[in-house]
Batch of 3 targets.
Target 1
Amino acid sequence: MSVRIATFNVENLFARYNFKAKLKVSKDDGFQLNDLAFDIFDNVEKTITAQAILEVEADIICLQEVESLPVLDRFNNSYLSKMKYKHRMVIDGNDPRQIDVAILSRYPFDWLKSHRQETKKNNTKIFSRDCFEAVVNVDGKPVHFYINHFKSMIGGRDKTHDRRLEQVNRVIEIIEADWKAKKYKGNFIVCGDFNDYLDKNSAVTNLAHHEGVENVVERLPKAEQWTHYYSKGEYTQLDYLLPSVWLAKNSKAKPQIMRMGLPLRATKYTGKRFANIGQDNPKASDHCPVYMDFELIS
C-alpha cells in the first residue's frame, strides 16, 4: 500500500496570551480564562503554514519547531481539520525556546519514545531538542520514525559542527542497534531538520549517506535538491527524508519539495506562491516541506 510521508520545519509554531482581546469569563478560574485567551501566534503567517501542509496532503507529517502538544492540537483543530489528523504527539525536548519535534498522523501510534534525557559524560544533554521515535500503525503495517532537529548553525557552521556530529552519531547508534542485525529490512524513516548541508565539511554526511538509508532527495536533479534559503544567497538541503534502503528500493516515486510558502526573497523559486506572501514575512516557513509516496512492505 502507498502512504504519503512528509517532514516540515514549521518555524516557530507558538501560541501566546491575547492581552488585547475583550474576554468575557463566566467563571473566575484561571483555566477558563487561559483557554479563551490562548491562541496561535500570528494568525496570518500560520494560515500560510497550514496552506503548505494542506497542499502536501501527507498521511503522516513530522514537524519541527512546535511549542507544545496543546499548541499542536489548537493548530490542527483550527487550521487542518480537513486533514483528519486524529493522532498527534509532541514531547517536550531540551530547547530553551520550547521548539520541539512533533508528528501528525491519520493512523494510530503503536508506541512512542523520547531520547531527550540522554547525556554525555559531562552530564550535558546530547540532543538540542530530541530524537523522537514513533511507530505508526498503517493498516497493520508498522512504520518506525526517528524525528530529529539537530543543533542549528547559529554562531557559525564550523563552531557548531561538533555538536551536530555528536547528535548524528547518536542517531546512527540508535538505528544500527534497531536495524543492523536485520540488514535494515524494515519500514523505517529517519527525518527532520538536520541544520546542515552535504559537502566535505558537513556534520550530517555519515547519516545522510549511511548504508542503511537513502537520502531520497538525491533522486532529484542537483539544482532541485534545496529545501531552505538563507539570506546570503545560499540554497541548500537542510531537511531530510531518509527511508531504509529496503523501503526506498520498493518505493519508485521521486520526492517532492513544496516551495509555495517561501518568502519572495527566495528568488530562485519562480513558481506559484500562496496569497499574502511577503518579501520576508509573512511566509509558511523558511524551510520547505519534503514529501514522498512510499510503498510499504509487510
Note: The chain has one domain: 2-16+29-295.
Target 2
Amino acid sequence: MLGISRESVYYQSVEISPTDKKIMGLIDEIYTTHPFYGNRRIKAELNLTHSISIGRGHVRTLMRIMGLEALYPKKNLSWKNKQHKVYPYLLKDLKIEKPNQVWSTDITYIKLTEGFAYLIAVIDWFSRYVISWKLSNSLDIDFCLECLREALSQTKNKPGIFNSDQGSHFTSPKFTEILEAHQIQISMDGRGRCLDNIFVERLWRTVKQENIYLNSYQNVLETKTGLNEYFLFYNDARRHQSLEYLTPKEVHFQ
C-alpha cells in the first residue's frame, strides 16, 4: 500500500538528483519484495548488498518522497484528513463468494527513467480482475476519481462493497460521494492494518516483478503503453493458481 503522506505530496516539487533516482529504484525493488522492511533494513540492504553508502536519514527522506512505509501495525501509516469521514472495515470474516461482491483500490509508486509516477487500480476481490487503472505523474485526486468513474461505467454490475485505505484521496467527499450515489457500501482498512487490502498488495508485487522491473520505461506515456499491454495479459491470459489456473477474465465473467 502507498501511504499518501503530507511529506510525499510536498516533495513532488523537490528536484531529485540522478543518483537519488537510481537509489529510489532500488528501494522500490527491495520494498516490493520485502514490504515489511523499514528504513533501517532498507539502509542495510543498500549498504551491504548494493555497496551504496547512504545514511538512514537519507533513506527515510527518499521513502517519504515515494510514499512508502513498512507494512507492520503502527499508527499514522498514511496521512488522514481529520475533516473527512472514515468508514468502518466491513470485510472481517466476510466470505467472498462471487464477482462484484467486493472491489478495492490502492495507489503505488512507479519508478521511471525520467522521474516517477503513481499507479491506481480497482480490482475485484473474487476474480482478481483489474476493472480499471490510471497512471499519473502527480498525486492530485483527479486520476483517482477518473479511475473510479471508469470502473463503474465499464460494467453493468456494481460492487456491493468498495474497500480502500484511510488515505485522504479515498476519504475525500469527492471520492466517497461517487460511491454513495451508486448505493455502494464503503469499507476502509483499520489504521495500520495494511494487509486488510491484501489482494491489491499482491497485484502491485506482480505488476512490478513481471512488468515494471523488466522494462526501463522512460516516461509516463511509454509506461501507459506498456501497462496497457500488461493488464490485457493479466486479465485475459495470466492463469492464477488461486483461481484453479483460470484467468481473472474467465472467473469474473463466468
Note: Residues 220-236 form the longest helix (17 residues).
Target 3
Amino acid sequence: MHQLAIALHKKGYIVTGSDDEIFEPAKSNLLQNNIFPAKIGWDAANITPDLYAVILGMHAKDDNPELIKAKELGLNIYSFPEYIYKESKDKTRIVVGGSHGKTTTTAMIMHVLKHCGLAFDYMVGAKLEGFSQSVDITDAPLIVCEGDEYPASALEKRPKFHFLFPHVAILTGIAWDHINVFPTYNFYKEQFSIFIGMIEKGGVLIYNETDKELANLVEESRRGDIKYIPYRVPEHTIDNGVTTVTIQNATTVLKVFGDHNLLNLHAAFHACESQGISAKDFLNAIADFKGASLRLEKIAGNDDTIVYRDFAHAPSKLKATLNAVRHQYPEKNIVAIFELHTYSSLSAEFLKEYEGCMNDADKAVVFYSNHALEIKRLKALNIDEVKVHFKRADLEVINNRFVLETWLKNLHLKNTVLLFMSSGNYDGIDVRTFAADLLKK
C-alpha cells in the first residue's frame, strides 16, 4: 500500500494515508517522499467530501472509522487491485497468477523488459534489484502485475487477480493454500477458472502444462476467443553447479537454478515474446538475473558451505525448493530448516499436505513459534503430531528459538548446503547474521 502511495505521489497526485502502525521500511520510504501521516492511527476527520478516491488495504476492517465515513459520504472506494486496474485500463496488462512462482516470474519479465528498453508499469510482491519500488504507475503503455489470489480488501472478498483483466495471463500451477479463505481445494481451484474467464477477448493464456491440475482446468475452460500457450521445463544442462538453458536455438548460462525457476523462466519468455522480444534478446537479458529477494537467495558461503534463504511456505514451494537444491548440488549434504508460519501451515488440519515434502534433505528441521500460534489464534500444535504428518522418522521438530539456535551451532557444516525456508523470521532470528556467524566457526 505504501508503495502504491509513493507511485501515485510521484505521478503528481495529492496522496494522504493512515494506519495504526507503520514499520520499516515503509516508515522511511514515506518520510523520504514527504507523505508520512501527521499522526498514527485512524481518524474520521481525515475523510472529506473533496477526496477523489479512498484506496483500502487489507489491514482496514469493516468497522474502520475512516471507511465508515467514506461510505457515508458516498466516496469512490477501491481495493488495491481495483485501483491498479483503474490506472491501467488503457494499457496492455500482463498478469502472473498461480499458487507458486508468481513473484519470480513477474520479476523475470520486468528484468527483461527493462534490459530491452521497454517502458512499463508494474506491481510485484518483493524488492527487486534494479527497481527502487515494488509498484510503479506512470503513463507507460504496458503494466506487469503479480496476480495474488488472496482477497482484495475487507469490503471485496474476491481474489485480487480477479480485478486485473489481463491481455496476457500466466498460470504457474495450482496447489491448495490459504485455507482460512479457501476452506476446500475445489473452492480454491475455482478461483483460477474464474481468472481464465476474465482474460480479455483475443488475449493469451500461458500455462504450465506439467501441472496436471492446471492442465485439466485449462482443458475445461473457455475456447475460441483466447490463445493458449503451454510451457514446460526448457532444454538445459547442469555442470558443476551451473545451469545453461536453451530456447529456440539461443543459449545462455544462468545465475538461478532449479526446475521451478526454469519453468518460471519459460513462462516469462512467452510473456516477453508477446511484446516482440526474441529468444536471443530474452536470454541475453535473463543471464544476469539473480532472483527476487528471499527466493533461493544466497546469504552466506565459503569454499565448503553455502547458505540460502527462501520464502517457501506452502507444500509445493517447499518441495520445489528442496528439489532444486538437491539437483544443483548432488554431492553436498543438504540441511533444511523450515518454519511453519502462515495460517495454513500452522493449522493442524492442513499439516497432512506436507507429507514427504522434506525428503530431499539429508537433515530436516521443522520449527514453529508458539507466539505465532497465539497471534493467529490457533490451537497449540503437538510436536509428535507435526512429525507424523511430515512422514519422516528422523525429522527434528523444534518450537523454541533458543533450542533451534543451539541445534544449528552444533552442526557439522563440511560440504553442506544450509537452507532456511520461511515466510517468517524464526521468532526473531536474524538469519543473515546468524548464518555468517555460523560459517566463522
Note: The chain has a mean pLDDT of 92.
